[in-house]
Inverse folding.
């Protein structure tokens, strides 16, 4: 018997209960709406009645069958499992002996990913062809397991089958567009340089020829299909694919921006057009605001006419404000900010800019306790040398540490990566005008000033993102 497709049924009560022998797991429990792009990193703010060993939650807000991810942080491990949930489901989560399992109304909708996730996607080791082939192997294994699962469990719904098939496919596309670089899940965006490396390394006639085969059946037609829009990886795949489609030269030039804008206006419609255009505007503001300022402003006007009630408008308007701050000196309160040198002296931000001379200044906001910051300092070391040589620039490190000794100790540990040069600590981290003005709410964060001390990019790409960072530097040199 096939289960009823409940997508058309609204306001049914969905209940989630649970038991755990890990007292911390339910204290730090999340239900992530993974196939809703805007919420892929945050839960819907479920209000769950938590106890050390049990939970109870009910809602009528679940209006559509979809994948969510159970994410619980236990005493010694993270419990993680995507499940397919429908309005009206009653679900029971059990954490016992270090394992997470789920039972309930449609039990076979909850257990698929426990099996197929055992086939893990690879880590990118600087060989794109090898990485892509391994990703394809994992996708095929997952897809085969899914087809076998359907045969063994004929009672699963058609909605489950359709959405799971799309999810598995888009997980693959996401992996080959956003290259996983370590076990923590950090990613590097695919860019033209990766295709060039393959072309040279494997003797393929042209990087363009390889790029055409790389994406397989991914197409504008598929990405414009309303049925795929709510996939958790959709927006990232959409923007990256349109950006890379036939684009293997100057990635973030004004002409390229206009090409991408026209693709979204002419090849896509409705939510695909809205999400793709919004994220393209935001990406170009991040990477190349200088060269593209007039085109971006015009595109924002067009976007507001097309989508006057868009949820993206707040973020776009916020990002657009930063364009107006470009090519100007920072305000006086920022210039007067006091920094501590590695020798223990104090210096103003203004004097620091003067000391570095008529060079481009890349400010790296970091801290001794910040793992991603340290990763970027180490991994970006080689690139930084190339950037400094080719673009006449200086790297300036400003730590937001509150512990002076830990800052000094970590700086010394990283000295072979150049951290002793232009190394500073905020004198008053809590009340810092630098932090307030540039909204340094997360690190690492990169801000670029030109040789005149004018702000040119307040949210620059990471130096580890080679092509994006090159685009940001070219943005300065071409203006």
């Amino acid at each position: 018997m096939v289960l009823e497709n409940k997508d058309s049924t609204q306001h049914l009560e969905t209940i989630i209960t649970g038991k755990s022998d890990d007292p911390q797991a339910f204290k730090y429990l999340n239900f992530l709406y993974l196939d809703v792009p805007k919420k892929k990193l945050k839960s819907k703010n479920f209000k769950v009645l938590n106890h050390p060993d049990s939970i109870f939650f009910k809602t009528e807000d679940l209006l559509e069958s979809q994948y969510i991810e159970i994410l619980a942080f236990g005493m010694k491990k993270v419990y993680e499992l995507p499940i397919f949930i429908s309005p009206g489901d009653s679900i029971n989560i059990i954490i016992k002996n270090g394992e997470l399992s789920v039972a309930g109304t449609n039990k076979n909708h909850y257990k698929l990913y426990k099996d197929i996730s055992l086939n893990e996607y690879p880590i990118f080791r600087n060989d794109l062809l090898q990485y892509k082939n391994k990703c394809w192997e994992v996708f095929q294994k997952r897809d085969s397991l899914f087809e076998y699962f359907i045969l063994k469990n004929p009672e699963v719904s058609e909605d489950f089958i359709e959405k799971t098939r799309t999810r598995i496919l888009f997980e693959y596309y996401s992996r080959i567009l956003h290259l996983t670089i370590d076990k923590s899940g950090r990613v590097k965006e695919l860019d033209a340089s990766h295709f060039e490396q393959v072309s040279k390394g494997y003797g393929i006639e042209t990087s363009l020829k390889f790029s055409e085969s790389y994406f397989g059946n991914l197409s504008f037609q598929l990405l414009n299909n309303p049925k795929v829009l709510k996939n958790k990886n959709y927006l990232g795949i959409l923007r990256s694919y349109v950006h890379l489609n036939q684009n293997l030269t100057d990635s973030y030039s004004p002409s390229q921006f206009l090409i991408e804008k026209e693709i979204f206006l002419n090849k896509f419609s409705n939510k695909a057009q809205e999400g793709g255009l919004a994220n393209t505007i935001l990406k170009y503001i991040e990477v190349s605001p200088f060269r593209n300022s007039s085109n971006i402003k015009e595109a924002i006007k067009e976007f507001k006419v097309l989508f006057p009630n868009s949820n993206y408008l707040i973020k776009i308007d916020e990002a657009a404000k930063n364009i107006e701050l470009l090519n100007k000196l920072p305000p006086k309160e920022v210039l007067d900010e006091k920094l501590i040198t590695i020798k223990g002296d104090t210096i103003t931000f203004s004097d620091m800019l003067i000391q570095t001379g008529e060079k481009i200044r890349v400010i790296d906001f970091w801290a001794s306790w910040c793992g991603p910051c340290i990763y970027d300092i180490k991994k970006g070391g080689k690139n930084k040398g190339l950037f400094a040589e080719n673009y006449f620039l200086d790297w300036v490190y400003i730590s937001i540490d509150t512990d002076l000794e830990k800052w000094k100790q970590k700086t010394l540990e990283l000295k072979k990566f150049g951290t002793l040069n232009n190394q500073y600590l905020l004198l008053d981290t809590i009340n810092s005008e630098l932090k307030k003005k540039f909204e340094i709410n997360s690190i690492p964060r990169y801000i670029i000033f030109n040789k005149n001390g004018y702000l040119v990019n307040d949210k620059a790409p990471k130096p580890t993102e080679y092509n994006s960072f090159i685009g940001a530097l070219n943005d300065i040199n071409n203006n």
